[in-house]
Amino acid sequence: MMRRSVLGSPWGIGMRLDRKSTFITGGTSGIGLATAAAFLREGAHVAVTGRDNARLQSVVERLGARCKGFVADAGDDAAMAEALAAAAGTLGGLDALFVNAGHYVSATLGTTSRADVEAQMKVVANMFMAVQSALPHLREGASVVLMGSVYAIMGPPGAGGYAASKAACRALARSMASELAPRSIRVNVVVPGAVDTPGWPHHQMEANERDRQKRAIGERALINRMVTDTEVANAVLFLASDESSGLNASEIVIDGGTTGALAGSPRYLRGEP
Ligand SMILES: NC(=O)c1ccc[n+]([C@@H]2O[C@H](COP(=O)([O-])OP(=O)(O)OC[C@H]3O[C@@H](n4cnc5c(N)ncnc54)[C@H](OP(=O)(O)O)[C@@H]3O)[C@@H](O)[C@H]2O)c1
Known about the structure:
Number of helices: 9
CATH class: Alpha Beta
Structural class: alpha/beta
Strand order of the largest sheet: 3-2-1-4-5-6-7
Number of domains: 1
CATH architecture: 3-Layer(aba) Sandwich
Distance between the termini: 62 Å
Bound molecules: NADP nicotinamide-adenine-dinucleotide phosphate
Helix content: 40-55%
Order of helices and strands: EHEHEHEHEHHEHHEH
CATH superfamily: NAD(P)-binding Rossmann-like Domain
């Protein structure tokens, strides 16, 4: 029999989610995909969702045997309930749920349709329903992480719907944390700044303009660059693990210091907006 070390794994490496069962909505790209990789690295079994079967299968194949994929649109309650039940059945309950799936819709006053605003706010409804559908499967002591954004507090022009949906996410997490405390289930929010993923609004721009935007956004952070999907994933990993047992109804901001100390950023110090 293999001996376990004091660090928790037979190899002497601390496996921070050793044999935990986890579920990530929107795990085929960007932050969700990076988080799936981080969870797997730390010993978890991971279920990921996405809307496109071919994309999902190729991601699952790359991530390996401890990863299972489920086709489920976050707005389809029946599909989500089925995916959660199937994942929990395979994994024997859920220890962590990362409600990550979402999208950005630009919404400038004067040019935005009701449909665009509602499409953005639907992301919050999807979050609510994902957690509700997961309730029968979440184990005592489980961790729920919701995907927020610094836009909730930055007042970004042209992004009112998105910003409002992320502000709603903060309130949602707090109410859910209160409701789930009797089951010792924690609910926290991860709050990234701009991350260069396929979902980042500037990602589709022509390469030169995109690089210019990356530099300009990065210079608003003390770290003088944008944060990476892996840096966000590491925060989610912490929130999903028992290491964060003291955090509840709380938020971790990963923006390189943009919202905390804008006045120290390279761009601000040069006197630029
Ligand atoms: N990138 C940033 O700067 C940034 C900053 C703060 C917060 N966020 C938030 O982070 C989350 C992930 O964004 P990302 O930047 O990683 O974008 P991304 O690379 O476009 O990834 C989005 C993921 O969500 C999935 N998805 C989107 N809508 C879905 C739906 N209705 N049902 C199921 N899956 C869905 C996509 O899968 P399929 O397309 O395969 O279905 C994909 O796996 C979003 O909630 C976003 O608001 C991003």
